[in-house]
Amino acid sequence: MTGSFRLSKSPVLVGGIGLAIFLCVLEIAVETGMVMELVVPRPSDTFLAFPPVQEDMDLVGNFFVTLGMTAASTAIALSIGVPFGYFLYRNRRYGIAYEGWLAAAFAAPTVLLYPLFLVIFGRTYLTLIMMGFIPGAIPIVIQTRQGLLGVSQTLLNVGRSFNVSEREMFWKIQLPSAVPTIFTGIRIGVMYTLVNIVAIEYLIDFGGLGRIVSEMYFRFDTPGTYASIVAVILVSVFFYWGFGRIEKWLRPV
Q1: Could you identify which of 182, 190, 216, 243 might form a hypothetical disulfide with 224, taking C-beta atoms 3.0 to 4.6 angstroms apart as the criterion?
Q2: What angle do CA 189, 141, 178 make, to 5 degrees?
Q3: For residue 153, what are the domain limits?
Q4: pTM beyond 0.90
Q5: Sign, Cα dihedral of 110, 112, 113, 114
């Protein structure tokens, strides 16, 4: 009973066991022909594909290229998105006027703007960073505004009753209360940033993990393709974990 209780209290362990079971089932399904090996390789073959892909395409180096570009795009998105979201919160008319436009822009396929950015910035990493920044900033702006609007009026009234300054009101009451909503926008933003960057890397065959996915795909190297996709997933996991730690630090209770 005690062991079962501890197991239920460990989400990481439960998730790891679930993933292991899924991989075992997939291995059997591919081995028995239930799933076409040409479409989905055996998990064991994907694992064994890492060393050859690393030797041929420098998987680790390109992992850090994509990680770095995603981090740069996210940093720009945060530096613009949070202040602009606060501006829309403070100026209600602008917030009401532009939130719908922002939502529409977020739904648009911004990857199609690549030719324009190619002309402006050239075929460089800066182009990919700026292309990743656009879809990353929009949900941060929207969720920052929504998070500040959702702060309990009771908390604000308590702050005013203690004659708290506007600056202290923001840093000690409004921001901690809005942190969960803001970080929801950040997580959404960083995922769309990563998707855009990898998609452009794939399309233009220019650096990063997307280039490796493209190369492996056109070689019909299915295990290598999935190995590079796993590397992309690891970039996503890194950011999800990192922002989770930062959120706990900003809102410890």
Answers
A1: 216
A2: 95
A3: 57-250
A4: no
A5: positive
